[in-house]
Amino acid sequence: MIRAPVNQTAASLTLHRQTDHDAQLRERVLQAMHGSGYPALRSVRCHVADGLITLEGIVASYFLKQLAQASALRVCETCEVRNAMDVRHP
Q1: For residue 81, what are the β-bridge partners?
Q2: In the CATH scheme, what architecture does the domain 19-87 have?
Q3: Which residues contact 8 (CB under 8 A, 6 or more apart)?
Q4: Structure confidence at residue 90 as a pLDDT band (50, 70, 90)
Q5: Which of 3, 10, 21, 30 is deepest in the core (most CB within 10 A)?
Q6: Do 54 and 25 meet the contact criterion of CB atoms below 8 Å apart?
């Protein structure tokens, strides 16, 4: 039996569609970073898909990079956090 190829584009869009839970989680992570007392964390971008939190952006120190990651983990201890932030010293 020959099977027809699966439409990979439609399948990948379905896998990465943001749910209401993901959107709420993203907002909570952003609120945690904004409330940290470190203005530099306000520029961090946050994406959430299927419970995976991805942090992106540029910060001036590894401390701020770690602080952003800790803020995300504090919001959701069972989530996976991908810290894709770059550190560039001013």
Answers
A1: 53
A2: 2-Layer Sandwich (3.30)
A3: none
A4: confident
A5: 30
A6: no
Q: What is residue 17's predicted lDDT score, i.e. its pLDDT? A: 63
Q: What is the mean pLDDT of residues 14-32?
A: 84
Beta-bridge partner residues of 17:
none
Residues 34 and 88 sit within 8 Å (Cβ to Cβ) = no
- Contact call for residues 18 and 53 (beta carbons, < 8 A): no
Helix 20-34 with 62-75: angle, nearest 10 deg: 130
| Residue boundaries of the structural domains of the chain | 19-87
State both tokens at 12.
């990948």
pLDDT at 9: 44
Tell me the pLDDT tens digit for each residue of 42-58. 999 999 998 899 999 99
